[in-house]
Amino acid sequence: MTNNIKIGGLIYNVNYCEELFTEQNFKMFGEIDYEKLVINICQKYPRQRQSQTILHEIIHGVNDHIGADQNENSVELFTNVLYSTIIDNKEFFKEMIDNGSRKPNK
Ligand SMILES: [Zn+2]
Fold first, then answer.
1. 84 alpha carbon to ligand 1 midpoint, in Å?
2. Residue 40 falls within a domain, yes or no?
């Protein structure tokens, strides 16, 4: 599995670490560094949490790319609804990725 993800033409390296803290010493699930092009993910949490966190950081990356305001609450809300939509429709998204489009209706 690759540890690289391209966001807006920039290749970010996804790095897994044991612990992540804010400057105020609060624990974090993950973070994105727009200058170093790194997404750090704390690997001590369950895989689902890590995946949701990667999606959260990707949304930050997309927002940075388009110059959108970075409101943490709206990023979090958007992440949660998008993550559940993807997870609840795995077959649909798998087919979309594999075939580029959905099957035509018969
Ligand atoms: Zn965030």
1. 17
2. yes
Specify the number of domains making up the chain: 1
Cα 6 → chain centroid: 11
- 2 alpha carbon – ligand 1 mean position (Å): 23
* CA of residue 24 to ligand 1 center, whole Å: 15
Range of the domain at 45: 4-99
pLDDT at 75: 96
Residue 16 three-state SS: strand
Confidence at residue 1, expressed as pLDDT on a 0 to 100 scale: 62
CATH number of the domain where residue 70 is located: 3.30.2010
Q: Quote the pTM value.
A: 0.89
Distance CA 87, CA 85 (A): 6
Token pair, residue 57, equals 């950081």
Cα(102) to centroid(ligand 1), Å: 32
Answer yes or no: is 19 within a domain.
yes
- What are the pLDDT digits (tens) for 25-79? 999 999 999 999 999 999 999 999 999 999 999 999 999 999 998 899 999 999 9
CA of 27 to the centre of ligand 1 (A): 13
